[in-house]
C-alpha cells in the first residue's frame, strides 16, 4: 500500500477549500493551523517561535511561508505552487514584514480575505503583529474550522493509513500484555514493548514509512492499580502487583494518522468486583457500537450509553463522553456526547470508549477505532475484548 496521501488528493483538498472560498465570496485565504497546513500540503514541520503560514492567492495559487531553515525542506516536500522564506526570528526585520511583502505581491491588498487566525501564535516566545494590523484588505472573515470540517470525512487513502496504524498498535499491545508481570515497572514494560514493536514496524514497512508522529507504542500512562481510576493519569513509574487493574493504550502513527486501541487488563487474577465493572464497561461499549448508524446524530450514541449507566445506577462512576473522531490528531471533532448533534456519515472515523472509574479499585475502559459505513460501522481495531483474554498471566 501507499504509505502517504498522494499528491492528487492534496491538490483536491486545496481545490475544495478554494471552492468554499468562492461560495462565500472570499478572494483569498491565510492559514496558520499546523495540522491544517499539513492536511492541505503534506508538509510536516515542527512549529516553534518561527512563524509559518499558508495562503491561497486571488489567482488560486498556493503559497507556503517558512523560515529560511525550512525553505529547502518545504520545496522538497510541500505540495504548493510557491515557497517564500525569511532569514530568522526575531532578526533585524520581523517575519511579518516579509509576510506582508509576500501577500502584497500576491495581490491581497484590497481583497476579501479569509483567515483561520488573525496572526501566528506560539507559546515559544513569538511576538508579532496581527494580519489585520499590517494588511490593507477590503474586509476580513474568519474561516476558522473550515479545514477541520473537511477532515471529518476520511478518504479511502486516509482510512488505509489508519488501518495500518491499527495493525501496529495491535502488535505493540500484544507485547505490552506479554511483558506485564508482577514486580516490573511500567516504564520497563512499556519501553520494551514499544521498542520491539517499532523495530518490527520499520523493518516490515521499509524505507517508505514516515511516522510524522510516534512510531509503534504501548503504554499504561500511570493507569495502574488504584491510579487507573483517574481517566487521564500520567506515568508514575509504578510497579505492577498481582490483582492490579491496568488501563492501556497502543497505536503507531502512519504519515501522521492516528488510531486508538485501549484495553482494561488485570495482573494474573481478577476479583468479583473487578469483573462486575469490567462487564458493565463491555456492555456499554457494545451498546455504543449498536447505535452507530449513518443519519443519526452523534448524541444518539451517548444517550443510549447514558441510559444504560442510569439503568444500572452507575452513572456517578462515569466522567467523560463515549468517544471522539480521530485522524491527524488524537482527538478531533465531532464527539459522541449529549451536546453534539452532528449527523453521522460514512467515512467518519471514531473512537468508542465509555469508561467506568471506581476510586480505590480502578478504571474500566476499552477503546476501539471504528469507521462509520453505509449501514452501520466497521471495527478497525481488532484486539480481544473479553475478560479471559484480558488477564495477564
Low-confidence segments: none
Q: What portion of residues belong to β-strands?
A: 15-25%
Q: Specify the number of helices.
A: 10
How is the largest sheet built, in terms of strand order? Answer: 4-3-2-1-5-6
Q: Pairing-aware structural class of the strands and helices?
A: alpha/beta
* Shape verdict: globular
Averaged pLDDT: 97
Distance between the termini: 36 Å
Number of strand segments: 18
Query: Helix-strand pattern, N to C?
Result: HEHEEHEHEHEHHHEEEEHHEEEEEEEE
Biggest sheet architecture: 6 strands, mixed
Proportion of residues in helical segments = 25-40%
Task: State Rg.
Answer: 23 Å
InterPro entries: Creatin/AminoP/Spt16_N, Creatinase/aminopeptidase-like, Creatinase_N, Pept_M24, Peptidase_M24B
Domain Peptidase M24: 160-374
Domain Creatinase N-terminal: 13-153
Pfam family, one: Creatinase_N
Amino acid at each position: 500500500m501507499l504509505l502517504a496521501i498522494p499528491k492528487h488528493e492534496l491538490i483536491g483538498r486545496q481545490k475544495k477549500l478554494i471552492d468554499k472560498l468562492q461560495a462565500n465570496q472570499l478572494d483569498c485565504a491565510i492559514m496558520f493551523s499546523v495540522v491544517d497546513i499539513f492536511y492541505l500540503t503534506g508538509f510536516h514541520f515542527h512549529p516553534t517561535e518561527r512563524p509559518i503560514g499558508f495562503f491561497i492567492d486571488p489567482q488560486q495559487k498556493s503559497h507556503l511561508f517558512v523560515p529560511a531553515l525550512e525553505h529547502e525542506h518545504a520545496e522538497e516536500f510541500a505540495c504548493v505552487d510557491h515557497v517564500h522564506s525569511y532569514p530568522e526570528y526575531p532578526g533585524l526585520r520581523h517575519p511579518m514584514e516579509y509576510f506582508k511583502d509576500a501577500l502584497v505581491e500576491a495581490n491581497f491588498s484590497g481583497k476579501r480575505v479569509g483567515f483561520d487566525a488573525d496572526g501566528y501564535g506560539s507559546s515559544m516566545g513569538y511576538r508579532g503583529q496581527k494580519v489585520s494590523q499590517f494588511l490593507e484588505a477590503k474586509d476580513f472573515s474568519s474561516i476558522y474550522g473550515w479545514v477541520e470540517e473537511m477532515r471529518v470525512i476520511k478518504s479511502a487513502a486516509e482510512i488505509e493509513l489508519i488501518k495500518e496504524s491499527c495493525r501496529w498498535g495491535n502488535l505493540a499491545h500484544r507485547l505490552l500484555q506479554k511483558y506485564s508481570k508482577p514486580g516490573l515497572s511500567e516504564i520497563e514494560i512499556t519501553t520494551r514493548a514499544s521498542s520491539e514493536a517499532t523495530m518490527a514496524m520499520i523493518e516490515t514497512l521499509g524505507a517508505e514509512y514516515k511516522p510524522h508522529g510516534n512510531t509503534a507504542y504501548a503504554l499504561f500512562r500511570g493507569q495502574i492499580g488504584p491510579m487507573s481510576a483517574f481517566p487521564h493519569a500520567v506515568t508514575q513509574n509504578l510497579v505492577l502487583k498481582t490483582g492490579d487493574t491496568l488501563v492501556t493504550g497502543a497505536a503507531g502513527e502512519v504519515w501522521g494518522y492516528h488510531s486508538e486501541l485501549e484495553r482494561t487488563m488485570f495482573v494474573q487474577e481478577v476479583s468479583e468486583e473487578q469483573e462486575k465493572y469490567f462487564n458493565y464497561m463491555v456492555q456499554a461499549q457494545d451498546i455504543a457500537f449498536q447505535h452507530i448508524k449513518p443519519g443519526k446524530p452523534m448524541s444518539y450514541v451517548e444517550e443510549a450509553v447514558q441510559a444504560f449507566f442510569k439503568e444500572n445506577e452507575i452513572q456517578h462512576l462515569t466522567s467523560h463522553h463515549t468517544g471522539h473522531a480521530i485522524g491527524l490528531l488524537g482527538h478531533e471533532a465531532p464527539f459522541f456526547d449529549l451536546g453534539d448533534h452532528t449527523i453521522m456519515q460514512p467515512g467518519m472515523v471514531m473512537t468508542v470508549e465509555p469508561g467506568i472509574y471506581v476510586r480505590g479499585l480502578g478504571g474500566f475502559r476499552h477503546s476501539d477505532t471504528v469507521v462509520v459505513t453505509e449501514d452501520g460501522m466497521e471495527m478497525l481495531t481488532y484486539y480481544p475484548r473479553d475478560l479471559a483474554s484480558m488477564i495477564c498471566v
